[in-house]
Amino acid sequence: MSIHKSSAIWNGNLPEGNGKMTIGEKAWTGKYSFKSRFEDGTGTSPEELIGAAHAGCFSMAFSHALDGAGYTPGSVETKAEVSLEKGEGGFSITKIHLISEGKVANISEEDFQKIANDAKENCPVSKALKAVEITLDASLV
Questions:
Q1: In angstroms, what CA-CA distances link 7 with 10, 20, 29?
Q2: Superfamily, domain 46-140
Q3: For residue range 34-84, what is the model confidence (pLDDT) as tens digits?
Q4: Between the CA of residue 71 and those of 19, 67, 74, what are the distances in Å?
Q5: Where exactly are the structural domains of the chain?
Q6: What is the DSSP code string of 61-119?
Q7: Which one, out of 5, 15, 49, 106, has a CA that is 20 to 30 A from the CA of 26?
Q8: pLDDT band, residue 86 (cuts 50/70/90)
């Protein structure tokens, strides 16, 4: 088992405060605020970090699944769009849309899509986020 650590600090009230998030042992540190999360402010948001984690996990899982099926992945590049919406109970992450491009030699479109969808369902981050709708557009390039 491996344990991965991150941290965050928030200063002040929600609309006027600010914070800082750190991934790992200071591998990355970024600022976040109400404006960066709910408007167009400078900085990041928890949702962007979830998106980055999901894109990274999916890319690794897809590459591994391709290799396991006998294909040699050149690269897998994935973007994640995380939807944050206000509902009756407050804000919720309602959807994550993965957009992935894979460079893989000698694979059919059918096999590519099947392996991509399997990776979407089975990467550890997708499993952790099962309460959220997860969609995928995968392109063979």
A1: 10, 8, 9
A2: K homology (KH) domain (3.30.300.20)
A3: 999 999 889 999 999 999 999 999 999 999 999 999 999 999 999 999 999
A4: 44, 5, 9
A5: 6-38, 46-140
A6: HHHHHHHHTT--EEEEEEEEEEEEEEETTEEEEEEEEEEEEEEETT--HHHHHHHHHHH
A7: 15
A8: very high
